[in-house]
Design brief:
This protein has about 325 residues and is of the alpha+beta class. Helix content is about 30%, strand content about 30%. The protein is built from nine helices and 18 strands. The strands form four sheets. Strands 2-3-7-8-11-14-15-16-18 form a nine-stranded mixed β-sheet. A hairpin with a 3-residue loop joins strand 15 and strand 16. Helix 1 crosses helix 6 and helix 3 runs parallel beside helix 7. It is globular.
Length: about 325
């Protein structure tokens, strides 16, 4: 299956203007199962390889249920047993994930692992699972099946954590920490799989960061452009990323934890802009599942800006997003 890039970072100019010492270091690599593109403006060493290493460490040591050495894989393996101790970093991420799960009434739920593996869209599955099998696995879904006390975790038997819907954002949070320890880095734009973008600092000429959002029904074209300043995290969830068709029905990868089937909220794309990577990534999924009204309420609760597109090609935005986004694709209309 071909995976479309959701967003493309634009305006990656060479060093100019206010900071003549900064050089533009660009790199394309692979981490978290997807393509990573980077442009870093720095007066020091090239840190692009360190970004890729950082993302791989987050995946392999913390969040990947596939990696035997990750803490999440260890938690899943020992579900139903005694309390397990996890690192402070994983505990912090899990605490934030569980808060967002509660705030979204389970629209975002890290315990959906058994369901996502049953559908197996990551490996190109094109078969709808039997409903009885889905219903059976739904018994293992529920964020309240996880108990977190400091950095000690206990999980009910059969529970399986999958942090894929927040993983890229978690990786971007760690990249920010790395950048903050290097004063030579003036600015950067990092794209992880197209669905998660982080901007940091500023370009040497002082101009804004420009990000193009993909048209969810024509992935070779753009819906419009976002213009942002400084540090921002931009995440998009859409029904066009990983999917297959059966007749006129689209089966995509964004699962509704309550039904075990792809979400049918009326939305086809949700974009979140906020100041934290994990929250940006997870909110994009939660808002997609919740739908327009409840999704907007959740985004505003977190102080995030949002851009939603529905099946009728209506574009809905928070007030703050209206100052950041310019719709350019014909056939779509901005609605209140």
């Amino acid at each position: 299956m071909i995976f479309a890039m959701l967003m493309t970072a634009c305006g990656q100019t060479e060093n100019a203007g206010e900071n003549q010492e900064a050089q533009a270091f660009s790199y394309t690599g692979f981490a978290m199962g997807t393509v990573v593109t980077e442009t870093i403006y720095s007066s020091g060493e090239d840190r692009t390889a360190d970004v890729e290493t950082c993302l791989k460490e987050v995946e392999n040591k913390w969040i990947s249920w596939k990696s035997e050495d990750s803490e999440i894989a260890e938690l899943n393996k020992n579900a139903g047993k005694s309390e397990q101790k996890i690192s402070d970093e994983t505990a912090d991420c899990l605490s934030r994930v569980l808060k967002l799960s509660k705030d979204s009434d389970g629209a975002f739920d890290p315990t959906i692992g058994n369901i996502t593996r049953l559908w197996d869209l990551d490996n190109g599955n094109t078969t709808v699972p039997d409903k009885s099998e889905i219903n059976k696995l739904l018994k293992s879904v529920g964020y309240d099946r996880i108990s977190l006390n400091g950095n000690k975790v206990s999980m009910e038997t059969g529970t399986s954590i999958d942090l894929g819907a927040a993983g890229k954002g978690m990786g971007c949070d760690e990249i920010k920490k790395m950048f903050e320890t290097d004063e030579s880095i003036a600015g950067a734009v990092i794209t992880v799989g197209g669905s998660s973008i982080m901007t940091y600092g500023s370009k040497p000429d002082g101009s804004d960061w420009t990000v193009a959002l993909t048209d969810p029904r024509d992935t070779d074209d753009f819906l419009g452009t976002l213009t942002v300043k400084g540090e921002q995290y931009i995440s998009t969830s859409g029904d066009y990323e990983k999917y297959f068709m059966v007749g006129d029905t689209r089966y995509h990868h964004i699962m509704d934890p309550k039904t075990g089937f792809p979400s049918r909220s009326g939305l086809i794309s949700t974009t979140i802009i906020c100041d934290k990577g994990l929250e940006s990534d997870a909110l994009a999924t939660a808002c997609f599942v919740l739908g327009k009204e409840k999704g907007m309420e959740l985004a505003e609760k977190y102080g995030a800006e949002a851009i939603f597109v529905d099946e009728d090609k209506n574009v809905y935005m928070t007030d703050g997003a209206k100052d950041l986004f310019q719709l350019t694709k014909e056939g779509y209309q901005i609605s209140e």
